[in-house]
Each structure stands twice: as C-alpha cells, then as structure tokens.
Amino acid sequence: MSQKVLSYDLGGTKIAAGVIQKNGRIIDEIRIPSEFHRGKSAVLKTIVEIGNQFLSRHPDIKAVGIASAGPLDPIHGTLLSPTNFSTTKDEWKKVPIARILKTAFKRPTALENDAAAAVLAECWKGAGQKFKNVMVLTLGTGLGTGVICNGNLVRAGRQLHPEAGHIILNYQDRTARCGCGNFGCAEAYLSGKFFSRRTGLKLSRPGISGPEIAELARRKNPIALEAFDEYSTIMSVVLQNYIRLYAPEIVLLTGSFAAASDLFLPQTRTKLRVLLKQQKNGLQSLPKLGLSTLDNRAGLLGGAYVALSLLETIQK
Ligand SMILES: [Zn+2]
C-alpha cells in the first residue's frame, strides 16, 4: 500500500495543499489565495479546515508536512512572524504551527522553509536529481533561497534557515524598502512583488502585476525593458555572492515570477559570466542556471518530502 502524506505550501500570496504518495505523485490538490488581511486566526482556521477536508477523503494520510515562507524555526516547527504574512493590523509573531496541526489532525507534523522544501523537492523529483550542490531561488512574494551542499541541506546557526534573500545590497536605497524592515535587501529588488512595485512607480502605474510588466516588456516598452535589464544586473550580482558562499553546480528558479525568466535569465547568465571572468579561476565556479521542472509545485512536493522523512525517522 502506498503511503500518503498531507502537504502545505504557505506563501505570501497563495496557500497550496495536497495529498501526495510516497512516489511523489500528487493525487489531490487545492490552491487558494492566502488573504492575510483576514487576520492570523482566520487564516489558521482555513488551513485546518482544508486539512480536515483532505483527511475525510483520504483517512489513510500518515503524516503532515508544511513548507512555509520564513523566517521560521524548522526544528521546533514554529513560524517566526513570516515577513510576508503580517499586515499592519495583525502581527503573526511566534506561531507553533506544527504543534497546532499535529493536535488538529493527530498525525506527526513537520515544518520546513519553503525554499528549503523546494530544493529538497528538486533533488528528489526535479532538475536537481543528478547534483549534490544545488541552489533554488523562489521568486514570488519574497526571495527565498534553499541550498544543498555536498548532498546535505544547509542550515544557518541555531538550526535556523539561512535568510539569504535579506543580504543587503544597498542600505541607502530608500526606493527599495524590504518586507523585513530594512532597505536595499536582495528581496527588495528581485522578488516578483517588489519588482512590480518598483517598476509600477517608474511606469506611473501603481498596482501593476509582474505578468503585466512582462507583457509590456515583450511589446518593447522601454521602461519595462530597462526594469528587466536592471533586474538581470542585480540578479547576476546576487548570484555571484551566493556562488562565493555555496558553490552550487546548478541554480534553479521557481515561483510565479520565474515565468518571466525569458526576459532576464539569458542577460543574467551573460552578466554573471563577466563578473566571474574577472576573478582568478572564477569561471570554474559558473553554475548551470535553469528553471524548476516541477511546475510551481516544488514547495508542495518538498512539504511531502519532509513529511515522508519524518515518518521514516519515526518508523526506524
Ligand atoms: Zn529584507
């Protein structure tokens, strides 16, 4: 009998959940807007309700995995006021989400950062399968980074997830206010949300979406093209920094904004080559750059992967 787990992917814009078999097959799935403006209690209630619906259809679910935007503490299963969850009225603070769902569903439950989940999923079922050094960038509401080095998931100190999206590139840039409170973080330029916000100001079209800006660029709008040119420059600099730290063999992009990669990935590759070429033996560290092959389900599959790993640990 195939083991089944329930997985969540909690992001700033959407919540995905699904039932996944041990072989990685998704057999039931839902995707809804996160609607954090409804407040923490209402969103948590929705998360539990979704789970109960899946459990009524699949009572043989054995464990639960949650991939979530951070910051969070994966070991204790606690959300630490995720940057893109809070609203001005409602601060999330510490939420022991793994314990809440474990109590609600009476199943073992694990929490993992969504970008860490994504890189685990890429190495399990996606484009990272043949590599031992893989980095995933999730380009959505935020900029998430997940890294596997020498075959192991990279943690920061205190068993936390490395928040590499918040390395500051330009602390004086008042046009790039990040969700974390600082100015000039990589996320404040490279996440789909912040790219759209900054470009919307330049276009005098506040509220314009990433796909709409991409459409303008494809129709050769000069402001949109310039915005993507700046995006590829910043992306190449950020990748150079990540390459210095982690030496990935392959970097994979996922998240909703990765759909616009035709407008920045080739240019990023060229600019990254230039940056690395200037360094002694720098080109040797040039990784492959590509897209996730998991169809925006890397987080969901990664949640399943951590749930299955938890089951394995329990059954040992
Ligand atoms: Zn930040």
Characterization of the model:
The structure is a single chain. The protein is of the alpha/beta class. The protein has two domains: 4-117 and 296-315, Nucleotidyltransferase, domain 5, CATH 3.30.420; 130-291, Nucleotidyltransferase, domain 5 (2-Layer Sandwich). 38% of the residues lie in helices and 21% in strands. It is built from nine helices and 13 strands. It has helices at 40-57, 97-105, 114-125, 187-190, 192-202, 210-218, 222-246, 265-277, 298-315; strands spanning 4-10, 14-21, 26-33, 61-68, 72-73, 78-80, 94-95, 109-113, 134-139, 143-149, 152-153, 250-254, 288-291. It has a five-stranded mixed sheet with strand order 3-2-1-4-8, with helices on both faces. Helix 8 (265-277) links the parallel strand 12 and strand 13. It starts with a strand and ends with a helix. Zinc ion binds next to loops.
Q: Tell me the CATH superfamily of the largest domain.
A: ATPase, nucleotide binding domain
Residue share in helices? 25-40%
Average pLDDT reading:
95
- Sheet bearing the most strands, described? 5 strands, mixed
- Major beta sheet, strand line-up: 3-2-1-4-8
First-residue to last-residue Cα separation? 18 Å
Number of helices: 9
Shape: globular
What is the H/E order? EEEHEEEEHEHEEEHHHHEHEH
Rg (C-alpha, Å): 19 Å
The number of domains: 2
The share of residues in extended strands comes to 15-25%
Molecules bound to protein:
zinc ion
CATH topology of the largest domain: Nucleotidyltransferase, domain 5
| Coarse structural class | alpha/beta
Number of E-state strands: 13
